[in-house]
Specification:
Helix content of chain A: 40-55%
Strand content of chain A: 5-15%
Low-confidence stretches of chain A: none
Strand content of chain B: 15-25%
Shape of chain B: globular
Number of helices of chain B: 11
Radius of gyration of chain A: 22 Å
CATH superfamily of the largest domain in chain B: Butyryl-CoA Dehydrogenase, subunit A, domain 3
Distance between the termini of chain B: 26 Å
Largest sheet of chain A: 4 strands, mixed
Shape of chain A: globular
Low-confidence stretches of chain B: none
Strand order of the largest sheet of chain B: 1-4-5-8
Distance between the termini of chain A: 46 Å
Number of domains of chain B: 3
Oligomer: heterodimer
Order of helices and strands of chain B: HHHHHHEEEEEEEEHEEHHHH
Structural class of chain B: alpha+beta
CATH topology of the largest domain in chain A: Butyryl-CoA Dehydrogenase, subunit A, domain 3
Number of helices of chain A: 11
Radius of gyration of chain B: 21 Å
CATH class of the largest domain in chain B: Mainly Alpha
CATH superfamily of the largest domain in chain A: Butyryl-CoA Dehydrogenase, subunit A, domain 3
Strand order of the largest sheet of chain A: 1-4-5-8
Number of domains of chain A: 3
Structural class of chain A: alpha+beta
Order of helices and strands of chain A: HHHHHEEEEEEEEHHHHHH
CATH architecture of the largest domain in chain B: Up-down Bundle
Number of strands of chain B: 10
CATH architecture of the largest domain in chain A: Up-down Bundle
Mean pLDDT of chain A: 92
Chain lengths: 391, 377
């Protein structure tokens, strides 16, 4: 697919003009606080009418899902065009019109594994922000050992009957639908009896309960399934082959979590933050730690860039995503320890002179657990990349 | 900026280099050099010249291949992987980069001799135990139309075998001041210059150079009098990036040996590589090497595209390389167990080269401080 530079330049101008016209000026250049995020869904209430205008305009052009095919509500952009779109969005300081697990996870999974009927039914409402999805993977007995899922879906002829419990389902209390891993064959080896099922959260028998974390309120929930009837057409991919989809999505998720470890501190660099703390850098221990964290952060950012270049050149990143997840999250934890130490007693209130630094610090402790623990990532690297023996 | 991926030409160069050093300069060769008390094998250097490596940064018009700093880094990395010893960094990287910015016939001739492999350069910059060019105290007194150089330089890589020396001496100012230094390019055989080989742990050529009234002319000055740090800046950065690349190769070589050993060695009736305690440490080491490789690739690209702004990229590369190679060789020796402590086994050679390379042209602390300064703290 050869795109000429001239064509891409024309695209850049066109998309920039569109962003300027479609994204209300009042939204641009604002710090990305929680209030700025539009998650969508049946019960969504916009915090600002400008957000609705921006979402409507983006939906009309398919720009909430730039790379998805036009027939499913996307814009059908090429990789190069999407990169330009992101660059122009950043340059014009426009917030994403919509963010959701549907866009990030379920959509890509349906595009890769779903049937035509499922794509037509589920993808367009995701792009319009009408349906909000959550992910039901982990269970009380299936954390690092994710394939040990016990929530079962029994074949009742014209429907599945689902019973069991999920945990760590982000925003389950706000979501309209859930995509979940369920056991459909209890006799098969554990990876081979799992299926990928879609369920409407309004179905009788589904209840949720929020989880309070060490960092305070959280989007995480427990989700309970008590004799939930699910239509058979909601099975994605082949029966008992759900683990393939799960693996596909986990790779995706790990890159996101690893990469999310950058660009914090409200857009300030580490140097700016520490420089603003009078005298903090006079302490040689803090200074030495800050230097090492900065060196590692810059080198890690380059690594993200190199892997992205690799993916864009059509060479897969594969199991190296485990490295990004491992390294990025461990680094982020260390960065927050440094910030806490540098800010001293000013960091110790839930909300203090540096905002919610303390709850953010506590929340980072989950980074190296969620989406696969650091130890599981090291296992993956050791086995798949280094090819170390199991005996 | 171009991507951090290698171009096809660069990948071909890497493959060729890896094949060559594996055959012609395995660790056994370094062992042989050590036992013969020589810093490198002149025959190997001639072969490197024939392949165009000595001219990797020399312009076409002077007989070079002019492939750029990313390519020079790839060569250095592959040499590091087998601990191939040669004056490549001093000559083909530092001297070539420094002299190609000088518009004199003499500099152009020197570049030709670098490309042909005839010139072997050493950079005499440091006088104390740590890299600090601006702390140079060595004097270059004006005498008649020229200068008279007196003082001493230490830890001069390739200083024992070089036939040319780039030396930084004071024509003004006081030690600690960046101003008042002048860079000279002189013949290593000049009267009053004596050289003592240092018996360093890496078995490579390092020397202490003493200057006792060595005469230099105005033509020997590189760049402007009193502004030697500027004349040396890009060459020095290129050298720092290249030693960082070599250290990445040293780390990769030590890692490769170690993972190989983990897959072979049996204890308690199991391959030791099946123990999770060792698997996680090996996986962590691989992650560090991957992250450092990005910083090395970036430094090469920045030196090729915007050399005037390369300090951050180069210091980041050297800081990361020093940190990573240290981890690689420590884990390497430890995971080999007792055999890793024996001279018969190669892993120890990696530890020794890593220690010396990490120190040369600025250690982790020096370069981390440069990064911090460039990032505003």
């Amino acid at each position: 697919m050869a795109e000429t530079d001239a064509a891409l330049d024309a695209f850049r101008k066109d998309i920039a003009d569109w962003i300027e016209a479609a994204c209300p000026a009042s939204l641009r250049g604002r710090p990305m606080t929680e209030d700025m995020i539009v998650w969508g869904g049946r019960r969504w209430e916009f915090k600002d009418p400008a957000q609705k205008a921006w979402l409507d305009a983006a939906t009309e052009r398919g720009m909430t899902a730039p790379r998805w095919p036009v027939e499913y509500g996307g814009a059908g952009l090429s990789r190069a065009q999407e990169k330009i779109y992101r660059e122009e969005m950043a340059r014009l300081q426009a917030p994403p019109p919509l963010e959701s697990f549907g866009l990030w996870m379920l959509g890509p999974a349906l595009l890769a594994f779903g049937n035509e009927e499922q794509k037509k039914r589920h993808l367009p409402p995701i792009t319009r922000g009408e349906i909000r999805w959550c992910q039901g993977y982990s269970e009380p007995g299936a954390g690092s050992d994710l394939a040990n899922v016990q929530t079962r879906a029994e074949d009742m002829g014209d429907h599945y009957l689902v019973n069991g419990q999920k945990i760590w389902t982000s925003y389950a209390d706000k979501a309209d639908w859930i995509f979940a891993l369920v056991r459909t064959d209890r006799d098969a080896p554990k990876h081979q009896g799992i299926s990928f099922l879609l369920m409407d959260m309004e179905t009788p028998g589904i209840t949720t309960r929020p989880i309070r974390l060490i960092s305070g309120k959280s989007p995480f929930c427990e989700t309970f399934f008590d004799n939930v009837k699910v239509p058979k057409e909601n099975l994605v991919g082949e029966l008992n082959r759900g683990w393939d989809i799960a693996k596909y999505l986990l790779t995706h998720e790990r890159e996101m979590i690893g990469g999310g470890a950058r660009g914090l501190l409200g857009g300030r660099s580490l140097g700016q933050f520490l420089g603003g703390l009078d005298g903090a850098m006079d302490d040689p221990v803090t200074r030495a730690e800050a230097m090492e964290v900065e060196v590692n952060s810059l080198a890690f950012a380059m690594t993200m860039e190199r892997y992205k270049d690799q993916a864009e050149a059509g060479q897969g990143v594969g199991n190296a995503s485990a490295m990004l997840k491992y390294y990025g999250t461990e680094l982020n934890k260390r960065r927050y320890e440094l910030l806490m130490s540098a800010a001293g007693s000013e960091a110790l209130e839930w909300q203090g002179p540096h905002g919610g630094l303390a709850p953010e610090w506590l929340r980072t402790k989950a980074n190296s657990i969620e989406g696969g623990t650091s130890e599981v990532m090291l296992d993956i690297i050791a086995k798949r990349v280094l090819e170390l023996p199991s005996r | 900026m171009t991507t951090l991926l290698e171009t096809e030409d660069e990948t071909m160069l890497r493959d060729a280099a890896r094949g060559f050093v594996t055959d012609a300069a395995p660790v056994a060769k370094l062992r042989e050099n050590r036992d013969k008390s020589r810093g490198f094998d002149p025959a190997l250097w001639r072969e490197m010249a024939q392949m165009g490596w000595t001219g990797v940064l020399v312009p076409d018009a002077r007989g070079g291949a002019d492939m750029g700093h990313r390519a020079a880094g790839i060569l250095a990395e592959e040499m590091g992987r087998t601990l191939a010893a040669s004056p490549f960094l001093s000559t083909a990287v530092i001297a070539a980069t420094t002299l190609r910015d000088v518009a004199t016939d003499r500099a152009r001739d020197a570049l030709g001799r670098i490309a042909s492999g005839d010139a072997i350069y050493a950079l005499a910059v440091d006088e104390g135990r740590k890299h600090a060019p601006e702390r140079s105290a060595m004097q270059a007194e004006r005498a008649g139309n020229g200068f008279r150089l007196s003082g001493a330089k230490t830890f001069v890589a390739d200083g024992g075998s070089a036939n040319r020396v780039l030396v930084l001496a004071r024509t003004g100012g006081a030690p600690g001041e960046a101003e008042g230094l002048t860079l000279f390019d002189i013949d290593a055989g000049r009267a009053g210059l004596s050289r003592d080989r240092l018996d360093t742990v890496d078995s490579r050529d390092h020397a202490r150079l003493s200057f006792d009234g060595v005469e230099a002319t105005g033509d020997d000055v590189v760049g402007d009098v009193d502004n030697g740090l500027a004349a040396l800046q890009t060459g020095l950065r290129a050298g720092q990036a290249a030693i960082a690349a070599e250290l990445l190769g040293v780390a990769g070589g030590a890692y490769g040996m170690t993972v190989g050993y983990l897959k072979e060695r049996k204890q308690f009736d199991r391959t030791i590589g099946s123990f999770q305690a060792l698997q996680h440490r090996a996986a962590h080491l691989w992650a560090e090497i991957e992250v450092t490789a990005s910083a090395i690739a970036n430094a090469g690209r920045v030196l090729d595209e915007t050399p005037q702004d390369a300090q951050l990229a180069v210091s980041l590369a050297k800081a990361r390389a020093a940190m990573t190679v240290d981890l690689a060789v420590r884990e390497g020796v430890q995971m080999h167990g007792g055999i890793g402590m024996t001279d018969d086994y190669d892993i120890g050679f990696y530890m020794k080269r890593a220690r010396v390379g990490a120190e040369w042209l600025g250690d982790y602390g020096y370069h981390a401080a440069q990064v911090a300064a460039a990032r505003g703290f």
